[in-house]
Amino acid sequence: MPTYGVHYYEVKDKQGIPWWLGISYKGIGQYDLQDKLKPRKLYQWKQLENLYFREKKFAVEVNDPHRRAVTKRTFGQTGLLIHTWYASHSLIKTIWVMAISQHQFYLDRKQSKAKLGPARTLEEIAMELTEHGGAKMNRLGDVGLKNNCITASNGSLVSTGGLITQLLWFTKR
């Protein structure tokens, strides 16, 4: 579902043209009033340098790598485009708060992905579980519960004492 998690706000641009501004964990999208599914423009969080509001104006500074014309006379950042939208003061402040919150969510998600490391394949997970499953079976035998377990039709072990121990079906193969 492409619109899941997108918060829409009705705004106008400098020319007074109405738009939907959609804010999500992906970034800020500008949508036509008739089409909330596909943004006309999408500014990803990694492209945005700054966002701010004042009175009835919400603005984002977008880093545009195509506008990086650096000369000897250039000071500060070049390649920044500023996009502005207008609405009531209370709505503009609400948009800004939501944008800050969604940007923080993006940063937290990015940081947690980095901590997890690379994604594992199903085969790697299955092999790891198979190795640990065999160790569990050995521990069950050591404790003396081996005789209290019966094999279910799916190959998992079920305790006759009512406690279900789920071992992977491929530990039996």
Automatic annotation (TrEMBL):
<feature type="domain" description="FERM">
    <location>
        <begin position="1"/>
        <end position="110"/>
    </location>
</feature>
<protein>
    <submittedName>
        <fullName>FERM domain-containing protein 4B</fullName>
    </submittedName>
</protein>
<dbReference type="InterPro" id="IPR018980">
    <property type="entry name" value="FERM_PH-like_C"/>
</dbReference>
<dbReference type="Pfam" id="PF09380">
    <property type="entry name" value="FERM_C"/>
</dbReference>
<dbReference type="InterPro" id="IPR041785">
    <property type="entry name" value="FRMD4A/B_FERM_C"/>
</dbReference>
<dbReference type="InterPro" id="IPR047176">
    <property type="entry name" value="FRMD4A/B"/>
</dbReference>
<dbReference type="InterPro" id="IPR011993">
    <property type="entry name" value="PH-like_dom_sf"/>
</dbReference>
<dbReference type="InterPro" id="IPR000299">
    <property type="entry name" value="FERM_domain"/>
</dbReference>
